[in-house]
């Protein structure tokens, strides 16, 4: 019986040590736990540059293409981390892909997700920098 108790104690100790190492490792990565992205930059794919988006920019609203798995909280934290300002509100739209025809074959573009981010008065995001 003494040997079995020693074996159980050593396995319990190693299991708890493994868990502590894993917790420290995940805290250091600063990942988003909901769907395992490596950084906040992965949530926002790119800003959408269109006529409607430029009209919305005059009212402190900016439009971004975001990951399909992203939600409002993740988009808000990504904007805060990337641009250094906390958004007032985040509205998200799921856009269905258009149905197309390629000669005699039918096809469909992929579905995507759009986020309209409202920022505080007096602050701007320079999305037209590289255009």
Polypeptide structure, described:
The chain has three helices and six strands; from the N terminus they run αβαβαββββ. By secondary structure, the chain is of the alpha+beta class. It has two domains: 1-30; 38-118, RRM (RNA recognition motif) domain (Alpha-Beta Plaits), CATH 3.30.70. The strands form two sheets. It has a four-stranded antiparallel β-sheet with strand order 1-2-6-3. The protein has a two-stranded antiparallel ribbon with strand order 4-5. A hairpin with a 2-residue loop joins β4 and β5 (105-108). The N and C termini lie far apart (75 Å).
Give the arrangement of secondary structure elements.
Elements: H1 2-29, E1 44-47, H2 51-57, E2 61-66, H3 72-83, E3 89-95, E4 99-102, E5 105-108, E6 112-118
Antiparallel strand pairs: 1-2, 2-6, 3-6, 4-5
Short summary:
The chain has three helices and six strands, in the order αβαβαββββ. The chain has 131 residues and is an alpha+beta fold.
Sheet with most strands: 4 strands, antiparallel
**How many beta-strand runs?**
6
Query: What's the CATH topology label of the largest domain?
Result: Alpha-Beta Plaits
The coarse silhouette is elongated
Assigned CATH superfamily of the largest domain: RRM (RNA recognition motif) domain
Q: What is the count of helical runs?
A: 3
Order of helices and strands: HEHEHEEEE
Question: What is the CATH architecture annotation of the largest domain?
Answer: 2-Layer Sandwich
Work out the radius of gyration.
Answer: 23 Å
Tell me the helix content: 25-40%
Q: What gap, in angstroms, lies between the N and C termini?
A: 75 Å
CATH uppermost class of the largest domain: Alpha Beta
Q: Could you tell me the mean pLDDT?
A: 81
- List low-confidence stretches: 21-29
In spatial order, strands of the major sheet run 1-2-6-3
* Overall number of structural domains: 2
Class computed from helices, strands and strand pairing: alpha+beta
Which percent band covers the strand fraction? Answer: 15-25%
């Amino acid at each position: 019986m003494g040997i079995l108790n020693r074996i159980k104690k050593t396995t319990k100790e190693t299991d708890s040590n493994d868990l502590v190492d894993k917790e420290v490792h995940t805290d250091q990565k600063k990942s988003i736990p909901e769907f395992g992205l490596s950084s906040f930059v992965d949530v926002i794919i790119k800003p959408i540059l269109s006529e409607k988006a430029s009209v919305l920019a005059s009212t402190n609203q900016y439009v971004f293409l975001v990951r399909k798995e992203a939600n409002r909280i993740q988009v808000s934290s990504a904007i805060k981390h990337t641009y250094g300002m906390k958004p007032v509100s985040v509205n998200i739209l799921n856009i269905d892909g258009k149905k197309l025809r390629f000669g005699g074959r039918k096809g469909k573009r992929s579905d995507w997700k759009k986020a309209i981010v409202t920022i505080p008065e007096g602050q701007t995001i320079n999305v037209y920098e590289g255009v």
